[in-house]
Amino acid sequence: MNEIIQYFATIPSLHRSLILAGGITLFWLIENAFPLFKFTYKKWHHAGINLFLTLTTIIINFALAFILLKTSDWTIAHNFGVLQWLPSIQLWLYALIGLLLLDLIGAYLVHLIEHKVKLLWRFHLIHHTDTWVDTTSANRHHPGESVIRFVFTTLGVLIVGSPMWLIFMYQTLSVLSTQFTHANITLPKKLDSFLSYFIVSPDMHKVHHHHALPYTDSNYGNIFSLWDRIFGTFMTLQKDKIIFGIDTYMNPEENNKLKNLLKIPFQKLRSPENVLKL
């Protein structure tokens, strides 16, 4: 465990970039060989949009990283946060508690709030407009949403009292998890169901990308499925019933053009009823 902590405490930026690129490449190869859905789309055009938005997310997080560092240093220096108030425990348990809490605040909570607050939903719905969910969809976030999520990650670091090695560990697991759950892959049903008791599985997250309520407002988790089960937001839906996208933006002219995606948060929000009248 000490070796793992030492690695994440000093993880080079190159390694973090390689993990991100390597994860996308690995799951892209797997989904090409064993796809869940056989999409008929221009895969490179689709990937280009999603990878551009991924790049903006990376740039924003890199530019604001000093805030995480300062926040983490402050919690350690002032003995502030849940982890700092714990009695002496084994490192693996310390890390697990920290990861669970960071996942709760930095992923589950912000995701839930983005679905409930209209102003935040304007930015998050760009992620849901993807009608061909694959591993490149993992970080299909509007730059505005990347800032929103960063704010909640920082809040999580403050409340949890996270050292930087734990933050880097969490971010690494978060990236790999979201690439895994968005990948257009299929696992044996029993295996996927078993995994969903502990972590967010591909089938579990695909339900969240169904185009209509109530499924869109379910399965908010990123790494751990625990929070959805505790707070009653866990739902299931058969694979063959899932239709990707969001019912207010199902037109490819809107959901498959980068320029329009960037403008959507600043346009009037639609309701499904309004779309049906168009």
Give the SSE map.
Blueprint: H1 2-9, H2 13-33, H3 43-77, H4 82-85, H5 91-116, H6 118-128, H7 143-160, H8 164-182, H9 189-195, H10 202-208, H11 226-230, H12 252-255, H13 258-263, H14 272-277
Helix pairs in contact: 1-8, 2-8, 3-7, 5-6, 5-7, 5-8
**Based on DSSP secondary structure assignment, what is the total number of beta strands?**
0
Number of helices: 14
Strand content: under 5%
Largest β-sheet summary? none
* Helical coverage, percent range: 55-70%
Kindly state the mean pLDDT as a whole number?
93
User: What's the helix-strand series?
Assistant: HHHHHHHHHHHHHH
- Structural class of the secondary structure composition? mainly alpha
In short:
This protein has 14 helices and no strands.
